[in-house]
Amino acid sequence: MLIDAEWLYKNLKDVKIVEVDFNPKISYYEGHIPSAVLINWRDFLNDSSRDFASPEKLSKILGNAGISEEDFVVLYSDMNNRYAFYAYWVLKAYGHSNLGILNGGIYKWLKDGYPIESDNVMVKKREYKAKKPDWSSRILVWELLSKLRQVTLIDARSREEYEGLVTAPPEHKCEQTQMSGHIPGAINIPWTSLLNDDETVKSKDELEKVFSAIDKSKEIVVYCRTGARASVVWYVLKEILSYKNVRLYDGSWVEYGNMVGVPVESSNSKDNQNES
């Protein structure tokens, strides 16, 4: 469900609009779509471990944002709209199926000349009951390591990260990993290659060409640094191109690139083993 800016503008009062931000102080409060509520992407995370929020916490977050289980929720975000796709993946897992993503995010909205506002949106709290998550579209590192040569791996990071020239993208340059490179056998398809200049998702025909070499019959695992950019690839494969068996490794390079004893490939290595 990719929603275009014109449709959203005409239906502002009929949907729940959520801006999912990495840095709300820079994004939401400088200007947001009218009636949009703010959810920090960290609100989807567990408070005491590196995992996702419990159904109870997520229920409180969404209820406090004035959302019910039946609402049609349209997501958009900062950071090239990546966290909208990430939130979509998470919310689908928790059973909220009535979801859309603003195609092109706030950038496309502003480019097309639609209005923004900077005030906090007042909402009436609702009761929300998130379901027990279905993680069939998720893969943890333990399972991944057991089947590295059996799955098709897609690395959604930049070419520089994939080749091991840098250990973090410019927007997260303080978050380095011990190792640089990529998971052995991974194919590099940067997530930005799926987007047009206005940050909208490319046409289905163009996307099919990008993934023409990917075997639909195999299990596909996508990853990036923390899962956000890879969620765009997951969305394209699953929701637009109808690939059946696509899973997101949300531990991604932040986890894998800091693990001891796992194989790593890079442009600087001569074999698949990492060096101490």
What do these coordinates show?
This is Sulfurtransferase. Keywords: Repeat, Transferase. One of its GO terms (molecular function) is thiosulfate-cyanide sulfurtransferase activity. The protein has about 280 residues and is an alpha/beta fold. The protein has 2 domains: about 1-110, 3-Layer(aba) Sandwich (Oxidized Rhodanese, domain 1), CATH 3.40.250; about 140-255, Oxidized Rhodanese, domain 1 (3-Layer(aba) Sandwich), CATH 3.40.250. It has 9 helices and 9 strands. Strands 1-5-4-2-3 form a 5-stranded parallel sheet. Strand 4, helix 3 (about 80-95) and strand 5 (about 100) form a beta-alpha-beta unit. Helix 3 packs across helix 8 (about 230-240). The N and C termini lie far apart (about 45 Å).
Features:
single chain; alpha/beta; Oxidized Rhodanese, domain 1; 2 domains; 9 helices; 9 strands; disordered C terminus; Rhodanese-like_dom; Rhodanese-like_dom_sf; transferase
